[in-house]
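Proteins fold reproducibly. Look at a sample protein:
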Amino acid sequence: MEGGIPTNLCVTPRRKRTWTPSSTTNAYSTKRRRVSFASVDLKSEVTPGPSSAAARVQPSGDRFISSRPDIQAPLNITPRTRRIANVFGLIDDRVLRFTDPNSGVADSSDYNHLRVNFAQLLAKKSKVSPASCVATLGARKQFVLALDGPGVPPDPFAYPLTWSRRNQIAVACGKDVYYQDLDSRVITHLCKVKATQGRPTSVQWRTESPHEIAVSTTLGSVQLWDAGVGEAVREWQDENWEAVGGTDWRGSVLAVGLDGGTLQFYDARQEQLAARLDLHRSKVHGVKFSPDGNYLASSDQQGVVYLWDMRAGKPLSDCKKMGGRIKHGAPVKALSWCPWQPDLLATGSTYPDGKVRVFTTKATAPIARALHVLPLHTAVTSLHWAAHAKELLSTHGTSWDPHAPRNAAGRPVAVPTQLTNSITVHAFPSGRRLLSVPAHAGAVGHSCLSPDGTMVFTICPAEEAMKMWKVWSAPELPARPSSSFSGKFGIR
């Protein structure tokens, strides 16, 4: 050892390795040396490892299906590696994955359709009430009975059809009035209006006395006929010979709307005029008493609807407590009071407004605001509330598109739609359309409700035909439970 360095340490000298032909089996082979990257993590070699303060990334795997980490070097880069991956099941298409990290949207395969169909089978369907129109008219969208009506008044604001409590349907045809017993199908000629009295425009059976019917004409003549004996009981004549619009009964009192805007009241027990109300400024088209008889709704050509307090004999707007004046953008003929909520009134306007509005007599403003508005863009000719369901039926005529170009007069042009000349039923209070059935080839002029509130009779002046529709069903009465003492004890 010299200078602290051991002298017996042997150092092998390094020499440069040279290439010799014996170091390879084929010196002229162009085959490349295979390099395996499966065990090499390139990311860890190039980028530094995460610091302890960095957030940890959780694997996106199922609790039962592990999530395979992404492979930096894919196994199918060459034909040879692809064959090996197929043999061992390592190809990407055959690897079990919980989610596809490269796809943000689920694929639209057949399995997705199966999942949707299976979910629809498990979903609970909403239960339809047997009294609803969906279960009755929706199941069979056909009329039950069709009758001819030659000479039906062409006036769209006429009331040529009425249905009595005795299940008799009366219709005005030309100058004659006929009625048919729907139970026996027997048709009877009631009367023929004289030429000096005009043509019949409105017929209305009396509610409390179903064998009596009021016949009103275009020259202000109002006649009360007894269908049992076929004779006229009363006859009233307007002093101005004005045409009669809508009529309605309240007990023995008949309300009549006239062309000059006057409401007149006739009592079946008196020969003279009972009362008179002057407030409308145009022809009165609709007259309807509330179910309890306390209120009267009247509508005119200018789209104004008044609510009258029959106990005070004046409109509700004069009471300064409840709304009594309703304004529409078109003539109003359709009026209907709700049978299960007497304060609700439904009104329907014609061209060019075409809306159904629902009001209440409990409004606090002199000009009432609508609780619900249904913009249908179709002429509404009549309205009927369902007696056993929260539904509202409307009959229609011409339809139009409010966004289409208008005619020279600035009004919408008629366009056929699903509501044209149809019977439509709406849910209340949502206003959702339940169904719509084409009723006639022309506009539905008028309709009336059956005594049990399940069927509707429609009439079309263009077709000169009438059709009866089964719209609703009466609810089934629950079976009365039998007493536990029945059959065991009795009175001797």
Summary: The chain has a mean pLDDT of 82.
